[in-house]
Design brief:
Helix content: 25-40%
Function: Catalyzes the conversion of 7,8-dihydroneopterin to 6-hydroxymethyl-7,8-dihydropterin.
Largest sheet: 5 strands, antiparallel
CATH class of the largest domain: Alpha Beta
CATH architecture of the largest domain: 2-Layer Sandwich
Number of helices: 8
Order of helices and strands: EHEHHHEEEHEEEHEEEHH
Shape: elongated
Family: In the N-terminal section; belongs to the DHNA family.
Number of domains: 2
EC number: 4.1.2.25, 2.7.6.3
GO biological process, one term: folic acid biosynthetic process
Pfam family, one: HPPK
Length: 280
């Protein structure tokens, strides 16, 4: 991805742990590397197709002057999020906040914090088999859309499927959701659990009936193996109700562990199921 760089932007701000720092203020230096696609702007010579670095410099200056934080870690975190939400063409950001002559009682040129933040592409599996199933699924999408850290939602068509695992329950409506988010995988898990709780999800029977079920299937190409979170979804390759809606959104998405596309996994599962039926 192409990069636009801002180096050593001088900003006067009031950030620090000590009261003198927040009252008197001091100079900070900001370095920003902005990841975007500059090809359209390069061919057209049209500033509207790129990120206006002049506007960004004024945005950074205004943000640091109008906010006060104790830690430069907090300055970097909050400002990075503000920038990513302000500029739609900004996909990723490397941001460094440098604090010259930090008051530690020793000769020091500067202290700095450098972070990388950006938008991540996520695919969710969504299902419901209690009550007004379609309304619950629509409500889940609406609640996701209301999160400022989530954008560009796309939703597959819904399909009705037989229950998986625990079969003594009503049929499901299933779909898939594509979105971009600033949340980490762990933060996104907390968000979707809150949405499930708000929509009446109760975790009583494993694989049991539910008003809404949201699972993270893919998060970029990341592999996460934690007690509460496994990405890619550990059993997606065996679930046609996951693969079929995903196929509508991202047939060419490659599973980072199995190294097969969603289209390949779907076709393999269909063939496996057909062979099973023919042998019975």
């Amino acid at each position: 991805m192409d990069r636009i760089k801002i180096q050593n932007l001088e900003v006067f701000g009031h950030h620090g742990v000590f009261s003198e720092e927040t009252k008197l203020g001091q100079k900070f230096l900001v370095n920003a590397t902005m990841y975007t696609n500059t090809r359209a702007a390069g061919y057209s010579d049209d500033l509207e197709k790129s990120i206006n670095y002049g506007e960004v410099c004024h945005f950074i200056t205004g943000y640091m002057q109008n906010h006060t934080f104790k830690l430069i870690e907090a300055v970097a975190e909050h400002m990075a999020q503000a920038m990513l939400m302000e500029y739609p063409l900004l996909q990723k950001l490397d941001l460094e906040i440098r604090k010259p002559w930090a008051p530690i009682g020793l000769p020091l040129e500067n202290v700095s914090v450098e972070i990388s933040r950006g938008w991540h592409t996520v695919y969710l599996s969504a299902g419901s088999n209690l009550g007004e199933r379609q309304q619950f699924l629509r409500a889940a999408v609406r609640l996701l859309q209301e999160c400022s850290e989530i954008r560009n939602l796309k939703v597959s068509k819904l399909m009705e499927t037989a229950p998986y695992g625990y079969t003594e329950q009503p049929a499901f409506l299933n779909g898939a959701i594509e979105l971009e988010t600033l949340f980490t995988p762990q933060e996104l898990l907390i968000v979707i659990h809150k949405i499930e709780a708000e929509l009446g999800r109760e975790r009583v029977i494993h694989w049991g009936p539910r008003t809404i079920d949201l699972d993270i299937v893919f998060y970029d190409d990341e592999i996460v193996a934690e007690s509460e979170l496994i990405i890619p979804h550990i059993d997606m390759q065996n679930r046609l109700f996951v693969l079929e809606p995903l196929y509508m959104l991202c047939p060419g998405k490659v599973h980072p562990v199995l190294h097969k596309t969603v289209a390949q996994l779907r076709q393999e599962l269909i063939s496996k199921t057909q062979n099973k039926w023919s042998n019975e």
